[in-house]
Design a protein that fits this description.
The complex is a heterodimer of chains A (578) and B (328). By secondary structure, chain A is α/β, with parallel strands linked by helices. Chain A is 58% helix and 11% strand. The longest helix of chain A has 38 residues. The longest helix of chain B is centred in the middle third of the chain and has 39 residues. Chain B is globular and about 85 Å long. By secondary structure, chain B is mainly alpha-helical. Classes of the chains: A alpha/beta (578), B mainly alpha (328). At the A-B interface, α4, α5, α9, α10 and α11 of A face α1, α6, α7, α9 and α10 of B.
């Protein structure tokens, strides 16, 4: 685990270094911290030292000017930075420690311990911390070591975010095998918590801690501003701003320098946090299906060429030529060709990662944003590539419908089933409510949903997975599409429900006579529904045959392997034979 | 739904009771309301201190003090102040409204703005409006609210001086003396609210718009949005009902959680603009070591937070059918 951890750390570090904004923010922060530590040693003026230069604007001798007492503002600001950074740093340590310990204990032991900790969190979250901190700050401020007291006050009020975060992750981890393994091997609870669980949350803690540092700077300076933080003759950035309140117009340097410093520090801390977050947990490019995907110039040329070729073979409903998908330098789908005739069912079979889903998404123009597609897709004689969102709407839902893999996420959780049907129906003509409900109920009955009227007013979460997928099928059928693309429609369902949904899909297709592109990893499902089968392997189509020839006489080595790995096919067919 | 509200109400009362115990203990144990009296030079006679202790009820053990304080609360009595003539309940009561109108208006403005900005930002990630909105939010997040408040106040003064006409009100929640008729009074109060509301709304706009952006971005990548696109729905319908509506659930949570922070912000904003609101009351009470007044303040703020959370829970039910049906 140690080696893997180090490797992961190196990768994370590399990602952070490449994060330009985060890196520059870190540099700024370093400069600020080093300045706060070392410059006061070299600077000729002390923060409490009174010079004869009263209220001077910035000059060579006093780069930030002087205040009304003649103190050098740079010296004051340096002292303020030291105080602010020291306090914020201690607050972060204290709050993170409390948060990690309480969070991991709550998550690990659960039940009563968890309930107690979470009530404490609720309680702290109910109180305006600044008010409580001001009261407690006013008590500790007078007594000697004010920075530590202040840090303890703020730390004891700011641990909740870390505690909640850690608890959440630990709750999800504690049932995992490696925790059980450690327990069986006789590790104590403390050891499991701090040697096995905490390291797994460390990335979250680092990010949360970084952001907390920024919040702590703001909290400390706010308190000092109100007069309940750092007390004169010592100073902090917040106190400097407070003293300069009435000087904004007359001696602006007194107000702007400390304020801009706070902003610089907090801004860099936040950007470092953002960089760390992305380094630990890189987000893929933002996915936005509402935009038109990028395509390369080459695709347009092939597209026009294809349009001419298309005229000579009008029989095909869908023709895919030289379609490829790349993610940067990596090719996910090699240039492939497919053809589907009206009313025909083509199964696209392959293991996960073979590029079959990407092929399906390319056909409907919904590749992920960071993918680049080329080639041409011709549907009923029309080139589909490079259509705008509005042009696509002529096809999507009306002539090409798609059914996605996971029925628990495809339906809108906050709309009733009836509304989701009505949304689809309104595409072609204005439909009134009663008419929409009547047709929706009809469609739902056609996919074997009983008690359709009552279901219409329900929300997706009230329905079972199989029922949701059948509703998704019914939704796809609203406009009697010419082509249905079904992307692993039964994979997320359990086996008994699978058969029902497959039967529903077959029935719905036969009723409308639509063609279908059926994408699956399961050869057993193919036998019952497909006319032809294309086998995909590592982004390429290795074999394409009609369904009987494929099962009887597979040509490619890979198909043979797939068939041998699916023993259910032989048993299935032997059951069907009599 | 009604059942849900009742259950939440019961748990809210419980949280408040718990909060009152903790606040009372922390404040009573840590603060000595007579510290100033004891430190006074020349020393105050012991009999005076003893009398003050008796008046404030400091001689009883803590649980007894808590119970008698709670008893007083039920009848609307917040306990004696360190200043004998000060009635905590009356004074706080007159100030709650001033603060609440600032807080509520700022929340509404910040919420509306962040819903708009966050959604627009997420729909155009790493493109034009987002390239301005995201860095602006980051800068606003780093801006100390007291600094922004002082800046706007002084700029307002400078603007007034330059034009020779009072465009911005920079001191107080209302003019002294206040206008007598209704409409001028409303206009006067609204005028005084402009700058403080901007400050308070901007600081929270920054946080909330970031959350809204994340929520919408996550929604956009979701299967149900892809399915809606595949159904051929219009952009407007997809954004409204399939992207933004589900994303309202996280933002309601965030706003409810942030309410105490809004109150903290209000304390600072009121201080800078010299409002006679709850913020000023708190700071005076702390300076006077008036523990009962601080207690009362914290309790009022906690009550407001709990009430707002209750509203958020009800909003949840309205936005999210999963909550509405699961709990009733």
């Amino acid at each position: 685990m140690g080696e893997a951890g180090a490797g992961k750390l190196a990768v994370t570090f590399g990602r952070f270094v490449r994060h330009k904004v985060g890196m520059s923010a870190l540099c700024v922060l370093f400069v600020v911290i080093l300045t706060a530590i070392f410059l006061p040693m070299l600077w000729p003026y002390d923060h409490a030292e009174i010079t004869p230069d009263l209220s001077q604007s910035p000059s060579l001798a006093h780069p930030m000017g002087t205040d009304t007492l003649g103190r050098d503002l740079l010296a004051l600001v340096l002292r303020g930075m030291q105080q602010s950074l020291l306090i914020a740093f201690s607050v972060t340590i204290i709050a993170s420690l409390i948060g990690v310990v309480l969070g991991v204990v709550a998550g690990y032991f659960g039940s009563l311990v968890d309930a107690t900790v979470m009530r404490a969190v609720d309680l702290v979250l109910t109180l305006p911390t600044l008010a409580l901190a001001a009261f407690l700050g006013s008590l500790v401020a007078g007594r000697g070591v004010s920075w530590l007291g202040l840090a303890m006050v703020l730390g004891s009020l700011m641990w909740t975010s870390v505690a909640r975060l850690v608890r959440g992750v630990v709750l999800s981890l504690r049932e995992l095998a490696f925790v059980d393994a450690a327990r069986v091997m006789g590790a104590s609870s403390t050891r499991i918590m701090f040697r096995h669980l905490v390291p797994n949350v460390s990335d979250h803690i680092v990010v949360a801690g970084t952001l907390m540092f920024g919040v702590a700077i703001l909290a400390e300076s706010s308190l000092s501003f109100l007069g309940f933080g750092v007390q004169p003759p010592d100073t902090s950035l917040g106190l400097l701003v407070a003293n300069a309140q009435s000087a904004v117009l007359t001696r602006p340097w007194l107000f702007y320098f400390p304020g801009l410093l706070i902003i610089t520090i907090v801004l860099s801390v936040n950007y470092v946090g953002e960089g760390l977050r992305e380094a630990f947990n890189p987000k893929s490019a933002p996915d936005n299906p509402l935009t038109t995907p990028r395509r390369t110039a080459r695709s347009r040329r092939t597209g026009t060429r294809e349009k001419q070729a298309q005229a000579s073979q009008p029989a095909a409903l869908l023709t895919v030529r030289d379609l490829s998908v790349r993610f940067g330098p990596q090719t996910a789908v090699k240039p492939i060709n497919l053809e589907i005739k009206p009313g025909e069912v083509l199964a696209l079979v392959g293991e996960s990662g073979s590029g079959k889903s990407l092929t399906g998404l390319s056909v409907v123009g919904l590749l992920p944003t960071n993918a680049v597609g080329t080639g041409s897709v011709v549907f009923a004689g029309n080139e589909l590539t490079d259509l705008s969102f509005e042009q696509w709407r002529e096809y999507r839902g009306r002539r090409i419908a798609m059914i996605l893999q996971d029925p628990s996420t495809t339906l809108n959780p906050v709309l009733t089933i009836a509304t989701q049907f009505a949304d689809s129906m309104r595409l072609t003509s204005a439909v009134n409510r009663t008419e929409a409900r009547r047709r929706a109920a009809e469609l739902m009955e056609s996919v074997a949903i009983k008690d359709a009227q009552a279901r219409l007013d329900q929300y997706p979460h009230q329905l079972s997975g199989g029922m949701r997928q059948r509703i998704a099928i019914a939704l796809a059928m609203v406009h009697d599409p010419d082509l249905i693309i079904a992307d692993e429609p039964t994979t997320a369902l359990d086996v008994t429900v699978q058969a029902q949904v497959m039967a529903t899909l077959a029935m719905a297709r036969e009723r409308t006579g639509a063609a279908m592109l059926f994408i699956t990893h399961d050869l057993a499902l193919v036998a019952g529904i497909a006319d032809r089968v294309a086998v995909m392997y590592q982004g390429d189509i290795v074999e394409e045959q009609d369904v009987f020839s494929l099962f009887d006489n597979p040509r490619s080595e890979y198909t043979r392997k797939l068939l041998s790995l699916a023993p259910r096919i032989s048993t299935d067919s032997s059951v069907e034979r009599p | 739904m009604v059942q849900l509200i009742f259950r939440r109400l019961a748990s809210a009362v419980l949280v408040l009771l718990l909060a009152s115990i903790v606040i009372f203990t922390v404040i009573s144990v840590s603060g000595d309301p007579l510290a100033e009296l004891r430190d006074r030079q020349p020393p105050v006679p012991g009999s005076v201190i003893a009398a003050e202790e008796a008046r404030l009820g400091l001689t009883d053990p803590l649980p007894v003090r808590y119970l008698s304080w709670l008893q007083g609360l039920v009848t609307g009595d917040f306990g004696p102040s360190t200043i004998a003539t000060r009635d905590i309940g009356v004074e706080l009561g007159s100030r709650v409204g001033v603060t609440l109108r600032l807080v509520i208006l700022a929340i509404i403005i910040a919420l509306v703005l962040s819903l708009l900005a966050g959604t627009v930002s997420a729909l155009h990630q790493r493109r034009w409006p987002d390239l301005i909105l995201t860095p602006s939010a980051f800068i606003l997040l780093a801006l100390p609210s007291f600094w922004l408040a002082v800046l706007l106040k002084q700029w307002g003064i400078a603007f007034n001086n330059a034009t020779g006409y009072q465009t911005f009100y920079t001191v107080g929640a209302v003019s002294v003396p206040a206008p007598r008729e209704f409409l001028p009074l409303v206009a006067d109060i609204a005028g005084h609210m402009v700058l403080p509301t901007i400050v308070l709304a901007l600081t929270h706009f920054a946080t909330w718009s970031r959350y809204q952006r994340a929520a919408v971005a996550e929604g956009l990548a979701g299967d149900h949005v892809r399915f809606a696109v595949l159904k051929g729905l219009s952009r407007r319908r997809i954004v409204g009902s399939y992207v933004v509506r589900p994303a309202l659930i996280p933002i309601v949570t965030i706003v409810a959680l942030d309410l105490p922070v809004v109150f903290s912000g209000a304390v600072i904003t009121e201080t800078v603009f010299q409002w006679r609101g709850m913020g000023g009351f708190l700071l005076e009470s702390i300076a006077l070591r008036d523990t009962n007044a601080v207690l009362a303040w914290l309790l009022i703020a906690a009550t407001a937070v709990v009430l707002f959370n209750l509203i958020a829970d009800i909003l949840y039910g309205l936005v999210d059918p999963r909550v509405r049906y699961a709990k009733s």
